[in-house]
Amino acid sequence: RVGYVHFADSNRLAPGQGHLDFPAILAVLGEIGYDGWVTAEILPHPDPDAAARAAIDYLRTLIPAAPAGGR
Questions:
Q1: What is the pLDDT of residue 5?
Q2: Range(s) of the domain holding residue 29
Q3: Which of 18, 44, 59, 70 could cross-link 13 (Cys pair, CB 3.0–4.6 Å)?
Q4: pLDDT-derived band of residue 4, with 50, 70 and 90 as boundaries?
Q5: How many independent structural domains does the chain possess?
């Protein structure tokens, strides 16, 4: 059972800009029926708000059923 997913790419870039294969990882999570929280640990470039928005926007393209308020 997976209770929580925390992404931290080896270069700490936003999802989609680093080394991890996010589409494959999220596909496997979908296959096992995971419906919990997903967070990303990233370096805030160019600023924290822009980095967070980029991560959220990218992950939402991979998780189309994700509600606007999170989870």
A1: 92
A2: 5-62
A3: 18
A4: very high
A5: 1
Residue 66 has pLDDT above 70, yes or no: no
Q: Which of 36, 42, 37, 69 is nearest to 55 (CA)?
A: 42
> What digits encode the pLDDT tens for the residues 7-43?
888 888 888 888 889 889 888 988 898 988 888 888 8
Residue whose structure tokens are 């189309």: 64
Residue 11 near residue 18 (C-beta atoms within 8 A): yes
User: Shortest CA distance to 62 belongs to which of 30, 31, 39, 40?
Assistant: 30
DSSP 3-67: --EEE--TT-PPTTSSSS-HHHHHHHHHHTT--S-EEE----SS-HHHHHHHHHHHHHHH-TT--
Would 70 be classed as within a structural domain?
no
Q: Does residue 68 belong to any structural domain of this protein? A: no
